[in-house]
Design brief:
By secondary structure, the protein is of the alpha/beta class. The protein folds into 2 domains: 5-257, tm_1862 like domain (pyruvate-formate lyase- activating enzyme), CATH 3.80.30.20; 300-381, Arc Repressor Mutant, subunit A, CATH 1.10.10.920. Helices cover 40% and strands 22% of the residues. It has helices spanning 32-49, 71-84, 104-111, 126-132, 138-150, 169-181, 199-202, 214-233, 252-258, 285-289, 301-312, 321-328, 336-344, 359-363, 365-374; strands at 5-12, 14-15, 27-28, 53-63, 87-97, 116-122, 156-162, 186-191, 237-240, 243-245, 263-266, 271-273, 278-280, 295-297, 319-320, 348-351, 354-357. The strands form 4 sheets. Strands 9-10-8-7-6-5-4-1-11 form a 9-stranded mixed β-sheet, with helices on both faces. The chain has a 3-stranded antiparallel β-sheet with strand order 12-13-14, with no helix packed on it. A 3-stranded antiparallel β-sheet has the order 15-17-16. It is globular, with a radius of gyration of 21 Å. Bound molecules: iron/sulfur cluster. Iron/sulfur cluster binds next to loops.
Length: 381
Amino acid sequence: MRRRFNRLYVHVPFCASKCGYCAFYSIPRPEEALVNAWLDKLLREFSENAKKCAVLDSVFIGGGTPTLLSPERLSLLFEGISANFALSSNAEISTECNPETLMPEKADALANFANRVSLGVQSFDDGIRRMLERRGTPADFAEAVAILAERGIDNLGCDLIYAVPGEGMDVWRSDLSKAVESGVKHISCYSLTIEEGSRLQAKGGRPFNVKRPDSALELDAEMWETAGAILADAGIHRYEVSNHAIPGFECRHNLEIWHGDTYLGCGPAAASFDGADRWTNPANLADWLDGASPELDAITPERRAAELLVMGLRTTIGWSAANFTERTGFQFDFMECELARLADAGLLTVAADSVAPTRKGLALWDAIAETLIIRNTPGAS
Ligand code: SF4
């Protein structure tokens, strides 16, 4: 069922350089003229779509590296959002930030608009950072945390990456401890995905589509378990397969999107969802500037509901029956057999009014996705 957009995502497609593992759409070292053209078009995209939005409950500015923008451009971006969209009084406004790009003037601009900042750390270990080709240093992260806290932004999170080639449990434990010690409220832990043809593959990494040895998969699983345990001990609990937060500091924007809420995506490569259809802007700045049409993800309503069911099952709370029906128009019984099979396998807890992953189900979420999505893929058996 089509609904107005409740959330806004803005894609800033620029970075200082390209990290060796990056699969996001971003342009390294952009020229000034290109950044200006992007901002002009973005502001037009805001005004063309504003009427399709309800009062926004969250805004997420991601990339790329939003904090590569100058303080003036950051302010223009924020003013553009404020001028075009109505925001709820307690709207969550998140910005991604690469610590080494954050100078006090940019932090001032962020503090005037955002109330949540997600810092890209990935690792505190010099060897791992070199392998990932990350700019900056752990000291930049500590400084960014201090700069933001001075300006009253204490809803901070950081991203970590594990299962980097050559990484052992000692390095991973140390990364988790340092993230906890920094005092951030939200920690995302992502298993490294090596894209085929990436520089990381050339350095000896095994691309995502090549089966890895059992010993590597066991280490991944152990690292995932260790993250949950160390962070829970610090009061930072897993609420989604890869995300952990002090209770009350979960990312509302993502939580609602995983549960089928609507969002408008602005900028190249940004996706939108109106409750029925999902579409993605061209992942090419020149095409997007030229007004090329978004790509529609044309699937049946049943398949859409299956995808949303699967996404909600990435979270520890899973789905209530009422919310699932409100967001998708379907009831759990459209998947009765598959849900029962996954419950028998110990991956889900299924009740009349809710379905949620077990601990084993969170660890083996791919198996849940496969079972529920294949059933709704024409031609699949
Ligand atoms: S900073 Fe992020 S978006 Fe930019 S190249 Fe690195 S991983 Fe990709």
